[in-house]
Amino acid sequence: MGKDNFYVTTPIYYVNGNPHIGHAYTTILADVLTRYHRLLGVESYFLTGTDEHGSKIQEAAEKSGITPKEQCDITFSRFVELWEKLEITNDDFIRTTEDRHKIVVQKILQDLFDRDLIYKSEYKGWYCLPCERFFLEKDLIDGKLCPECKRPVKELVESNYFFRMSNYQDWLINYIKEHSDFILPAFRANETLGFLRQPLSDLCISRPKFRLSWGIELPFDNDYVCYVWFDALVNYISAIGYLSDEKKFKKWWPASYHLMAKDILTTHTVYWPTMLKAIGLEMPKTIFAHGWWLTDSEKMSKSLGNVVDPMSMSERYGVDAFRYFLLAEMALGQDASFTESGFIQRYNADLANDLGNFLNRVTKFILKQENPVIPKPGEENGDDKEFIKEVLNAVNVMESSIVNMRLDKGIEAVLGAVRAGNRYMEKTAPWKLAKEGNTERLNSVLYNAAEALRIISGLLYPVIPEKANVIRKSLGISDDKIVIEEFKVWGKLNPGLKVFDTGVLFPRIELVEPKVEEKSEHSKPVKESSKVEGVMELISIDDFFKAKLKTAKVLTAEKVKNTEKLLKLSIQIGEETRQIVAGIAQFYPPEDIIGKSIVVVSNLKPAKICGLESNGMLLAAKREGQLKIITVDGDMPSGSSVG
Ligand code: MSP
After folding, report:
1. Which one of 263, 268, 334 would you pick to mutate in the ligand 1 pocket, going by the greatest count of ligand atoms within 8 A of its CB?
2. Mind listing the pLDDT tens digit for each residue in 582-594?
3. In this predicted model, what pLDDT tens digit does every residue of 568-582 receive, in sequence order?
4. Nearest-CA neighbor of 407 among 485, 298, 514, 330?
5. Ligand 1: which residues within 6 Å by Cβ?
6. Is the pLDDT score of 519 beyond 60?
């Protein structure tokens, strides 16, 4: 490639809904890779942004009764807020509604049109509105459903403009075959080659304005706007100065990595390379498609309504822990399942027990000494050598895991070094050495353990920047410049640095008992130790009757603003009308629950949920991402007792 700079991109995210964990993952991954390259001293540029045109956005705006521009502005700011919260260090954020982008898209369209690489023709096809894509009949599920989102497609016939994508089929096949790192992981390259076994058709790049007006107007026909994907992909070059700042563009193009999940593999490995070829630009070095975050084996997505909110996760458990979990848990390239209990288990094991404990042991021990500073080590013995080897091995593994895009493996190796640190402490038993007055050996052990923590914190810095700095601070390192070269050399930690107690690095999280959404709003976490999986705690009948269960009739129901999960219900219990807030919005549209006879716990203490008073709790059954409200079979007046 002949270019040492590192330019990484994330997909630009649609602004029809709030950011979720999938968006957060790709962006954190890009952030961590960029931070590593910065540590390596490589000049880096990290681009993210929002995809703001197309029918998805127009529809979302219509639904909310606002203009598409307002829809974009509101949602764009949620992405910006989240990236700030998650300590994302992007160098630029591009919005496709910005002039700097629109001008470039129009120039490219005009140029391709002038060179007859874009032409007008009749189009007939099966169109999926939510996915904004035409599909071939053979690809539909049961001949009528979208293969991506499984919703019904519509047959459309209209005049449109086409990009001569088919011209490039043979070239693209050869390019992929000749460049083994162009599409990664390698099995994704095979998927694209499989797709290219069929004749490649030309790409419809326009949408008539009568159907969709929210887009970039075609410069040669103002009855049409540009197809959102043709517009969006251009962001990778418009943001870095293509056709506007030649010097900047030369500096960063071609991109080192376009990161994304497998859902948008074809657009990135077929549309984008052929567009670049037609424009006359070099190919990006690597297009990397990671797997999906799943809930109960379904892809997490706004349209499926099963998303995890990254903002609330990081507020509850801390930003660094959230970043750590996402990167450590997903084997890059494969799918991974997100569950809160999985999160808590890994947090407690890796961060609270292993890393937190190691730091705590080392600093607390040094702080107990008369002179609480990093001691001067003596001669190394066999135990020391073995431990040092293990730590330095983690440096090598991490370095190669960045190059090979297996960050999860790198993190695993660093955690291996942390565990080796805890074993080293046990084996060398500094408390015994202190008792025996063996100061020279004690100093060596404490120095080695602290030096390991310096290296470990440096290796983990891109993943957990804030906590890594806390570790460095507690070792007395005031210099905040971390250089990777310094990880490879043992002994860089200066004896004499004053050690600090910076508190518990990652406080243990108590496991919360799994329960239906609704219940979690009211009840308290249960201590991990008090709950043994598979063993049911027995209660007396008196305990059971403490809960006053009553039948109730739902009078009204509406979604709670700015939340995805909550419905506000007014219910009638006998003579009384009450308000309850229930976490069922993802399972029941408001209109489906009005009139139902449900069962509620009527004597629950009132709780405030999202600022709204909830006076009671409805009962529901929940399993594997499904939720069903418990209803009364047949006629029964509201307020009847249940039990
Ligand atoms: N706007 C297009 C991308 C245009 S890029 C020129 C788009 N946007 S999106 O909002 O749907 O974002 C898709 C991307 O978000 C995925 O490719 C991935 O990076 C991330 N993810 C969204 N859901 C995801 C999961 N459930 N799991 C992992 N990542 C996912 O497509």
Report:
1. 263
2. 889 888 888 888 8
3. 888 888 877 788 888
4. 330
5. 11-14, 22-23, 25-26, 51, 232-233, 235, 260-261, 263-264, 292-293, 299-301
6. no
